[in-house]
Amino acid sequence: MLAGSQPRYPGADPRAAAMMTLLADSGGDEDRQHIVREVVDLVRSRRNLAPNAEFALGAMCFVHRMPRGAGEAVFVIARSAGWIAHAIEEYETAPGMKTPLTRG
């Protein structure tokens, strides 16, 4: 069993697993795909760690030669969507969260 690379996941990060599968099927620069596979295999063999979502995003940027800053933009958009989803869940489940905070 691989050690968790993200504290909330006891095993491999399922987000990264999905992204790495998409990356493998995406084409891109084959030499860079090979480098990514080698890095993943090396880290697995030496540290027993699986890629996390941040690694997978970086690998996508590397393999597809995305412009500088593109990875950060994707990360921010994805994180924002996650925060919004979390807020919606909180509003639906947490008592009193629907009332906006006011200053006295």
Count the strands? Answer: 0
Helix content: 55-70%
Average of the residue pLDDT scores: 84
Computed over alpha carbons, the radius of gyration is 18 Å
Number of helices: 4
First-last Cα distance: 53 Å
> Beta-strand level of the residues, as a percent range?
under 5%
Topology as a string of helices (H) and strands (E): HHHH
Sheet with most strands: none
Q: Structural class, please?
A: mainly alpha
Q: Any low-confidence stretches, pLDDT <50, length ≥5? A: none
Gross morphology is globular
Describe this structure in words.
By secondary structure, the chain is an all-alpha fold. The chain has helices spanning 14-25, 30-47, 53-63, 70-93. The chain contains 4 helices and no strands. It is globular. It is 62% helix and 0% strand. Helix 1 runs parallel beside helix 3 and helix 3 (53-63) packs antiparallel against helix 4.
Entry summary:
The protein has 104 residues and is mostly helical.
List keywords for this structure.
mainly alpha, 4 helices, 104 residues, 0% strand
Layout of helices and strands:
Layout: H1 14-25, H2 30-47, H3 53-63, H4 70-93
Helix pairs in contact: 1-3, 3-4
